[in-house]
Amino acid sequence: MRYLLILTLLLLSFSCSNSVDEKRIIDSRKFNTIISQKDKTLVYIWTTWCSGCRKNLEQTLPKLMQDINGEEYQLLLIAVSKNREEVDSLVSASGLSNHSYFLDFIGPDKGKFQSIGIRQFLSSNFPNEKIYIGGIPVFFLVSRDQEVLIKNLPHSYNEVMEMLN
Questions:
Q1: How does pLDDT run across 2-15, given as a tens digit for each residue?
Q2: Which of 74, 93, 135, 165 could be 38's S-S partner, Cβ–Cβ 3.0 to 4.6 Å?
Q3: Cα–Cα distance measured from residue 114 to residue 111, given in angstroms and rounded to the nearest whole number
């Protein structure tokens, strides 16, 4: 029975994988390279089925990126999805100039599989921090030295700006 379950999970993971450009899959090395480029990085981990994520992508994040100091801050979008076309469409529609990276995880685009992927990614990059508490999106601020400055950024523009100032 166990072998059947494992085989089913493996088949699901292969059948659910759309062609995501390998250069856009984020791992710890790439994450560290990206965050080292600016003093502070707003990290936004999201998925396509989350209505709050979509709202932030359409409203909060574009306005935020327009109004913060681009010399000091950057935005890193990490999509927890295997649907490259949908992710690219949503990011493009938001008017954000950067493209989204993809978190690699095993299984289909379902909450449980995505949650495990998020938890593994964050615990490997921030072993002493509890950033992920089970909800999506995950929005936090990190320094170029990989120090978590703010664990749970709010999702409204005014509240984020207040915390950053």
A1: 555 454 554 444 44
A2: 74
A3: 5
